[in-house]
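Supplementary notes for students who missed Thursday's class. We covered one full example, reproduced here. Read the sequence, then the structure, then the short commentary at the end.
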Amino acid sequence: MSERDEKGRQILGRSDGNARPVTGTGRFASQSGFTTREDLGERNPGSATLDDSMQKVAWRRRLGRPRVRSIALVVLAAILIVPVGLFSYGWWHYSRIETVDVSSVLSGRSGRKGTNYLIVGTDSRAGIDSSDPNAGAFIASEVSGARTDTIMILHVEDGTSQLASIPRDLWVTDPANGQKGRINSTFASGPANLILTVESIGIPVDHYLEINFLSFARLVDAVGGISVTFDNPARDTHSGLSIERAGTVRLNGSQALAYVRSRYYEEQRGGKWIVDPTSDLGRTERQRQFLTTLIKSASTARNPLVLVRLPGAFGEGIKRDTTLSYLGAIDLVWTMKDSTPASVAIPVSARTTTGGAAVLELKQGSSEVIQTLAK
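Structure (token representation):
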């Protein structure tokens, strides 16, 4: 018969040198010989709070799990919703851009690797506020309708890009009437006629983009202005350009327009104002440099405020061809993000027509440049 203590508990054994018996209860008592939690409670009533503490820890863990899940869900929602929201916001603004159906005259791919975007800047005064302090850059002269002030080709191929200017005074044959004239005059018969003219000199056109004065200025303002370095004080009393000191100047929208439109560009040297002898060629070079910087600024924008303003800047005053989809436009921006367009000049020479008009003609070496744009 097993020995029991005064409380009726079975005595498992006695430790050497200690008369106190080792006791236990429960199914593990005979195996472990350890004092149970009940024994601790009996010997030290204050230890009963151990169970309460363990329960509190368990409850905290249970309460913590939903909180962690909630935070994870919020983060996941932000990761998904923000890009979708920006995509939708951009698409809404893009869908509002006026379209021009010139699909019948756009070039076929015919095995070419590159894509050409014909970018046309017009001198339409629609929507311009005459109270603007720089309004002279927009409305320096009265005109009816819209004329081309800038003609450029953006050539994109294998992740690289080139930006070429077509001088507005280039002497060409107008497809609409077969008569000779300046290339900018062919726009009077519509965008399709201008596209046909550009293609007639050997440059295929895949997409068409048109921007007027007002939208150009808004786009510059949307990216926070563009920095231009002037070697000397500069001015153009016709376009409204006025740079009083040499150095790098941050131009806002209307100032930028006065700069790229300048055809009577002057620099102050030695206290005298000297007219730029390159005339329209110097103007197209300034336009290429400026547009290159503008494209890069817009495509690499990271500032949330800039990203919000940009879609709105591509609203009124901009036109695109019907074949340029939203995804196609995003692909172009994505390409330009990693590519700075190389400035390309189409070789031309000046001459005076029998009628006394000062014009420009393609000269030797222009075919090689044109061929690179036709790839």
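Commentary. The chain has a mean pLDDT of 80. Residues 98-373 form a domain with the Aminopeptidase fold (CATH 3.40.630.190). If anything here is unclear, bring it to office hours.
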